[in-house]
Amino acid sequence: MKNVLIGVSVLGSMFTFAQEKDSANVKKIDEVIMNTYIKKDSDYSNKMSLKAIENPQVYSSIDKAILENQVIYTVDAAFRNIPGLQTMWTANGRAGDGGAYVNLRGFVSSNSLRNGVLGSITGTIDAINLEKVEVLKGPSGTLFGSLLTSYGGVINRVTKKPFDTFGGNISLSGGNYDTYRASVDINTPLTKDKKLLFRLNSAYTNEGTFQTEGYRRNLAIAPSLSYNPTDRLNINFEMELFNMKSMSDQTFFFYSGKYLQKVNNIKDLNLDYKNSYLGKDLNNTGRSINFFGQVNYKISNTIKSSTNISTSSSYSDGFMPYLYFMGDDPTKMYRSDQSTRDSRKKAINFQQNFNGDFRIGNLRNRVVLGFDYLRINNDQNFFDVNGFDKGPDGSSIPVPLHQPGFDFTNFNGTALQAQYDAMAGNETPYLIKSIQNNYAVYLSNVLNVTDNLSVLMALRVDRFSNKPGIVDPKTLETAKAFNQTFFSPKLGIVYEVIKDKVSLFGNYQNSFKNLDYYTNTEGQMTTAVPEQANQMEGGIKTSLFNGKISSTLSYYNIKVKDALRSTPNPKYNNAQTQDGTIVSKGVELEINAYLVKGFTAIAGFTYNDSSYTKADKSVLNRRPNTSGSPYLVNLYASYQFLDGNLKGLGFGVGGNYASSNKIVNMLDPDTGTNNVFTLPSYIVLNANAFYDAKKFRIGIKVDNFTNQHYWIGYTTANPQRLINALGSVTYKF
Questions:
Q1: How many CB atoms lie within 10 A of CB 236?
Q2: DSSP readout, 662-702?
Q3: Could you read off the pLDDT of 229-239 as tens digits, one per residue?
């Protein structure tokens, strides 16, 4: 254990090796690689313990030690280490839907799972209580349902757990853009017999902006309690509070209009990258509170029970300004706001799993039988000023982008609130009110036909009940409740060409989405059938040199059918038909390597080809504007001195490449012109250095050290932070 203390905090090492003492090989590697090791095995991807080499599903994971090396303190920033994951929209704290949105395999996804159950957060997710983040690739509805997943994959946060000795750390950080942070991690037994354990993780972060206006203040509090009355019984209680007060990041929307015939790239707009085009006091308060309870019981040597209950509650109140383009003139933009007032979303998730590991004859069976109940209560209240700038007739008008001396700061909190006050009593809010209940039973079995061949078979049955609220605030019309039942199968095959070293795998995965009502071409409100996605995937996995080099190479094909597509007519502009088809296919490569003593690297390359194969003519055979960049590359390499006078010193460098991203990609149905608007490709480079001793750690990073001007977007354009540096000092006890 002496060597392990280098590069790993006392707190982290006690937990890590307590969890990994069942694997001699893994422990041996950890002792060498120290805090650059990335553990690949997962207890959550199939709701059972499977080695990465024998898992037919593709997944990536990033350990907290990598985040510590890179001086990263949010889960959202950690995503840059995941192959094929592209951030599309940063978190804004809005109740219900305010969390960060990312793209996986051509589909939009968000972070909704924590230790395999409900754990939604609508603001910036602090990594203070993060052990690792896992990303399961492809549609995973069979084990995780439809309400918390996307067709591209599932993001799961694995949290730190209490352990049986006293320890912890205190950390202070600071950097440019008025960034400062304080965090604490304290663990202690509460009883002499060490059966009752407590851990507290907490952090406060203040961040400014590289633009003229903007800020973010985050408070995270995450206590956890573990009770182990017997060797068979374990009880856990945890809580998360994330409170964010902020001014939302600058966001440009691009609506249809002839201006798209004059500009087709964000650079064509000649925007001032450092100008927020906003004034002061456009504040929003967002809050997420989650509670978790778990009871684990070992029924016998072959059967275990896990009972889980979690609750999630989000709240927001405040302004949400945005900027947009439409009409004929690309030199003018519109300004607007969509505020929330006492907006809330609550959910509760109950999950019971029984895991078995037994033999029938000579055949090993690893089984999970589960029941899942999820209830979501939407009570979200949106208010809009319908354009901040008004013409004589009260209609929204644009403002000039490049007029010298124009005062963009007049779009501020005081002026916006005055408009809302003037509208009092005559507002038409956009309300999202509904109660959704989902009941599910699932069964999954991994059968070892031989020592080298295993087959995974799984099936889920969902009963979905939706009780919509008011669907038209003007007429107070209420939609009728409806119920749907859906079956979701899964099949996986793994053949280990070289046992525990090289495997060939293939999978069929399914997921689905329960849609709401839509207006058909006759103007009638129609209940949609569940939309569904089916994936076929095959590839190869390796784990060589006692796990020092691991890799995954795969090809996937995802077909989504029964998607809603627009079919407008002169009478009903919002008419839709549910017969659309989207096909997303691609290649993914991930490599994790401990090449020489002290030197490690993680790298990924992905290519995605997505298109509508059946849709209205405006988007037929085109890449969806929510599919992100086709090509993505990530790389991070680090070296740490393990011996000599420089023992404990380490440094690393890495970066990300993304090809161009078409956030508008359609044929104008009225003019027949090709409307395409693109965010350009980018390369962002980051560097870090650290010195780790027994009682303290010093770290520094410089992100985007080439000062790249780059944009991300979810049908939008959002400028990203310029060069920024941060230093941290940690005391360990």
A1: 20
A2: EEEEEE-TTT--EEEEEEPPEEEEEEEEEEE-SSEEEEEEE
A3: 999 999 999 99
